[in-house]
Every structure is written in C-alpha cells, then in structure tokens.
C-alpha cells in the first residue's frame, strides 16, 4: 500500500478512505438486527390531509408527510386515480401515469388561456438560449421545418385537386 | 414568490406561486439562496418520469436560510443557513435507522420503491422543489445541516446531491487499492465519482462519455483517463483491451435512463418509452466489468422494465450495488474532504444564472450548449 501510495502522490487524499474491510455493503452497515419488526417503529405525527393524495397500493395508507404540489384534477386526475389501482410492478400503473402527464400538458395550456395568459411556448423551451449559442442549428431546424410544412401543404393541395378532377 | 413552473416536456418557466406553508410540526420554510439544475432534472424535463404534473416546481439541490420553523423543530433556528439533502427522510422508520435515508418509508405515499425527493414528480412524493424563492422542508430536524462557516455556499449546494452521489457510487464499488475503475458518464455525478474513486485507492480511473468538452473537463478535474465512445467501434471491446483482456475491477453507471450510444436502447427506452429509460450505460458496465467484479449504479432509471443482460450478470458472478445516495450519512466525512481540499465541489460550476432565466438554463443544460457542466440558479430574494 505504501509503495502504491507513492505512485499517486499527485492526487490529494489518495487512498484515504480505503479500508480493507470496505465491502460494498456500506449503505447497510447500520443494520440494526431487528428489521423483521418492519412497520412497528414509532411513526412520526401525521400531516393533515387537506388535498387529495394518491397512494401506492403496496403500502397501508399514506406516509407521515407528503407533498401538496399539484393534486390530481380534471381528466388527467381521473387517469391517475385509475393508475393507482395497479401496483408499482405493473405497466397498468406507469403507462396511464405517463399518458395522464401528456393530457395534463394540454390542460395546462387551457388553464393558462382561461386565466387570460397566452404562454410563450418558444421562450418556455429556451429558444432564446438556442438563438444565442446554437444559431446555425436553430436556423437549420427552422428551415427543415418550413420545408417539411411546405412539402406537406403542396402534397395535400395536389391530392385535393386530384380529387376534384375525379 | 417566484418559482420554476413545469408546463410539459421541454417547457418550463418562472411564475409567481403562493408562499409555502408549514403543514406539519416538523416542517421548516427555507428562503433559497442557491439551487442547482441536476442531470436527473433532465429526466423530468424530458417527460420521462411518470406522474410529473404540470405546475410542479423542480429542484432537489438547494441551500437557504431558515425563515420559519414548525412547533416541534429543535435542531434548527430561524436565520440558520442550511444545506438540505435531496432525500426527505423521517429519521425514525426502520430504513432511516439503518442509515438508508434515501429509502425512507414515511416521506412518499405515491411509491414504495423510492423515498421522498424535493421537486421530483409525484412518484417521489409530490413535493415542490428548491428552484424557487422559498421551499417547504419536512422533517427539518433530520435532513438539513447548518453550513459550517468555512464552507463556501457553492460547495454547500453541491453537497446536497452531486458530491454524496458520486462518493457513494465509488463507495458501493468496494474499490480496493490499485483497482481499475471505469465510470460511464462525465456529467457532474460521473465527474465526482471519478474524483472520489481515488480516495478509495483506485489505481486507474477511466471515464467514458461522448461530449468532448466534458471529457476535457474530467481529465483535468479528476486527473483521470477519458475516452469518447463515439470514436470507438465497441466500448466494451475497447475496455477489455485497455485492461489486458480482463475487464475492469469496478464499473460505475453514472448515466441512467437518458443514455445515448445504442440505437435499440434509444428507440425502445427514450422514444417509445417501452423501457424505463435507455439502459446503454448499465449494459456496457455489466459487460466491461471483470468476472466477479462490482457494478455500482447511481444513474436514474424509471420504475418498470429494462432490457439488461442479466445472463451475463449470472455467468460472470457480478455484484450489482445501487441506490440513491444517503446524503445525511455521508455529509460529515464529505465536509472533512472539502475542508481539507481533497474535493473541490464548486470547481464544476460553469454557469450562474438568475432564477428568472430558468427556461434558458434548462435548455442550455439539456442541449449541452455553451460547454455547460453545472448550473447554479440564484433567486432574486438571494441577490439583495
Ligand atoms: Zn441531483
Ligand atoms: Zn424514514
């Protein structure tokens, strides 16, 4: 170890936490030996439940504390409630949640508009930074977008006129 | 107060939101002085984490001044400048008792597989995070720690996640003096894991990434070898050759579900979301480690299925260790390392941005613009 250490003199603190007993079990080293007691610990006081909290069906009831950020609401909320009928082990839980997230995005835009606020989606996507640090990439992206749109419009017009002829 | 507001994939902005309130006798309200954008926030930003609801505030890496405390908080007082570990932990459940603060059973009703985390979707408890002027901190006697006078605030904010996660990645690798350690990913956590591998006596540290600016950075910062997998036909073969056709002693996955590098994994994991993230880095780690070696995983993956080469895990006799870092357990030791100059956390900060410019800050980090490694957000209330 001393010989090895001299090879690493340029690295401050080399080997300082090396411990021959360092098996990769550190995160469990404080194992108390009575883990079989499971949920028999003294539970902290319960945070009052004043919003709707969905909870995993793999646990009894809700935890002592929880976040109150964005309670389920609307169509996305209904999908989320459905998702929580399934365990965390099932696609039935996670796929509906991901779908609800997408529905929630549309709800978010509707909410903004209802409040009389028109979201500046380009600014929200950080396109100011794109303009500053990746101008060429942004211009290419826009040009490709415009080209694709123009082509699509042209194709649509042509198929429409074809239909007219029939 | 001003707070970051998630509006959907790739869309965030700053809005006025109500001040957080004490909701539990062990709560505190903290006025944020600095928060960070983390690589794992990008998984949320990209819409990959289920139950990320519109209107949430992200941010699990923050420090701040205690503004208000609940009736039963004893270890903190108003005016203390504290660093807040990203895990919300009760300190009394049987997991917290073992030091597994990242696995607390009383902080996240929505899932049992992960504990409560600030600003990390409802799957991690539905808490608003610290990319705001004020934040609610539950179990204030357990997590927060008063920042020692000789610790710089920029170092303190990196001690809430990046440093402990990198350190625990190396620790879980069970590194023995002289071992060859390969770190996949040169983001902030990978950089820190490479740095900390030396503290456990690594003989050789190799970092794999695909962004040249990050590779340059990690070579200097962590005094290691660093290679671009885009210039290799096969990273696993490259690493076998680099280790006398033996394999690395320890491999660390510091990437998680947003990994680039494998078309199949990208399409199934990130585009179609049929997997809980693209498991490219984990795949490479399992296949490049020696027989009987250890793979340590701190990269964030989603909860359901992943295509991983479990046959090779069995046949090679690999030990896989993985967890969210138990920040509180590691803090005392890490503070000693920072004080002694063995780790320089603030050395990885490349961007300091006002909270109001959060949309641009996320885009810069996500699109890897302007050689961004780590961004600190400063709320207006911390600038006066
Ligand atoms: Zn983080
Ligand atoms: Zn706990």
UniProtKB/TrEMBL annotation, chain A:
What name goes with this protein?
Uncharacterized protein
The species this protein belongs to is Siphonobacter curvatus
Q: Which domain of life, per UniProt? A: Bacteria
Automatic annotation (TrEMBL), chain B:
Provide any one GO MF term from the record. zinc ion binding
Tell me which cofactor or cofactors this protein depends on.
Answer: Zn(2+)
Q: Which UniProt keywords apply?
A: Metal-binding, Oxidoreductase, Zinc
Domain Alcohol dehydrogenase-like C-terminal: start-end pairs: 188-267
Highest taxon listed in the record's lineage: Bacteria
The residues covered by the Alcohol dehydrogenase-like N-terminal domain are: 25-144
Transmembrane segment boundaries: none
Q: Which family does it belong to?
A: Belongs to the zinc-containing alcohol dehydrogenase family.
Q: Which PANTHER family match?
A: DEHYDROGENASE, ZINC-CONTAINING, PUTATIVE (AFU_ORTHOLOGUE AFUA_2G02810)-RELATED, ZINC-TYPE ALCOHOL DEHYDROGENASE-LIKE
Protein name, entry field: Glutathione-dependent formaldehyde dehydrogenase
Native organism: Siphonobacter curvatus
């Amino acid at each position: 170890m001393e010989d090895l250490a001299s090879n690493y003199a340029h690295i401050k603190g080399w080997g300082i936490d090396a411990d021959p007993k360092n098996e990769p079990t550190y995160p469990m080293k404080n194992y108390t030996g009575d883990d079989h007691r499971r949920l028999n610990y003294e539970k902290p006081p319960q945070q009052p439940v004043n919003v709707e909290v969905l909870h995993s069906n793999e646990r009894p009831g809700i935890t002592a504390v929880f976040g109150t950020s964005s309670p389920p609401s609307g169509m996305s909320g209904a999908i989320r409630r459905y998702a929580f009928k399934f365990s965390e082990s099932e696609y039935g839980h996670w796929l509906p949640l991901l779908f609800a997230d997408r529905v929630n995005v549309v709800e978010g835009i509707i909410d903004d508009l209802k409040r009389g606020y028109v979201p500046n989606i380009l600014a929200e996507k950080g396109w100011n930074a794109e303009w500053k640090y990746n101008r060429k990439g942004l211009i290419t992206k826009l040009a490709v977008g415009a080209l694709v749109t123009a082509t699509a419009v042209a194709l649509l017009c042509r198929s429409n006129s074809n239909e007219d002829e029939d | 107060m001003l707070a970051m507001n998630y509006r959907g994939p790739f869309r965030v902005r700053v809005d006025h939101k109500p001040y957080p309130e004490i909701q539990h006798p062990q709560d505190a309200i903290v006025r944020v002085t600095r928060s960070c954008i983390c690589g794992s926030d990008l998984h949320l930003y990209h819409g990959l984490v289920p139950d990320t609801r519109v209107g949430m505030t992200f941010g699990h890496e923050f420090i701040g001044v205690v503004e208000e405390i609940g009736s039963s908080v004893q270890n903190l007082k108003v005016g203390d400048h504290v660093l807040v570990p990203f895990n919300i932990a009760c300190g009394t459940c049987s997991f917290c008792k073992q030091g597994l603060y990242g696995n607390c059973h009383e902080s996240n009703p929505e899932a049992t597989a992960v504990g409560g985390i600030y600003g990390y979707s409802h799957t991690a408890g539905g808490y608003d995070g610290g990319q705001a002027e004020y934040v609610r901190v539950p179990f204030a006697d357990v997590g927060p720690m008063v920042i020692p006078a000789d610790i710089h605030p920029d170092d303190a904010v990196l001690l809430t996640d990046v440093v402990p996660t990198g350190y625990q990645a190396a620790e879980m690798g069970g590194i023995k003096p002289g071992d060859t350690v390969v770190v996949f990913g040169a983001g902030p956590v990978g950089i820190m894991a490479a740095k900390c591998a030396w503290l456990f006596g690594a003989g050789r540290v190799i970092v794999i990434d695909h962004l040249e600016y990050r590779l340059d950075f990690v070579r200097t910062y962590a005094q290691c070898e660093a290679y671009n997998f885009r210039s290799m036909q096969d990273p696993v073969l490259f690493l076998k050759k680099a280790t006398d056709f033996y394999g690395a002693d320890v491999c660390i996955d510091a990437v998680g579900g947003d990994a680039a590098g494998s078309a199949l994994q990208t399409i199934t994991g990130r585009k179609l979301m049929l997997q809980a993230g693209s498991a490219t880095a984990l795949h490479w780690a399992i296949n490049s480690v020696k027989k009987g070696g250890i793979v340590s995983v701190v990269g964030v993956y989603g909860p359901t299925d992943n295509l991983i080469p479990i046959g090779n895990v069995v046949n090679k006799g690999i030990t896989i260790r993985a967890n969210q870092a138990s920040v509180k357990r590691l803090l005392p030791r890490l503070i000693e390392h920072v004080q002694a100059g063995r780790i320089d956390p603030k050395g990885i900060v490349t961007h300091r941005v006002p909270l109001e410019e959060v949309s641009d800050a996320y885009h810069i980090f996500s699109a890897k613009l302007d050689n961004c490694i780590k961004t600190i957000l400063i709320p207006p209330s911390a600038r006066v």
